[in-house]
């Protein structure tokens, strides 16, 4: 729970405010600049698990709702509604891509929170880490990335071709993305 003076906010209250503001569509978090209200004991683990007060959030609908009001500012992550902004921790990337539909020039990723994006100019694939321990990501929205899980990355590598620079890469959305750091 976040605290700011005598006020405190519950995860349910934040979710309810954001859901009503979104009006059935994606929440326009990029337009919201509410006051900072403190930190919430919420962490998104590197394996994609959302944990509040030490307990994994077991309701997928709640996780999806929180994912829809997640905002990144620099290296910090916040849950926002039109009236409040609560800091949270993210161990790696806030999302996890667990599947991909691989076509000749379109790779569409699916995340554990239900986002679907096709890699291309607005949804770049990047690989950090080392050749021995690559960390592949796909951009989801507004500076938020999904870590591409191991099985999906292996499927991408199996579909990759060696480019003129000698590195393995994959094509999607008219772009070629290197699969090596």
Automatic annotation (TrEMBL):
Residues 1-20 are annotated as: Disordered. Gene3D superfamilies: duf1285 like domain, duf1285 protein. Pfam families: DUF1285_C, DUF1285_N. It comes from the Bacteria. Residues 11-20 have a biased composition (Low complexity). Residues 27-93, 94-179 form the DUF1285 domain. This is DUF1285 domain-containing protein.
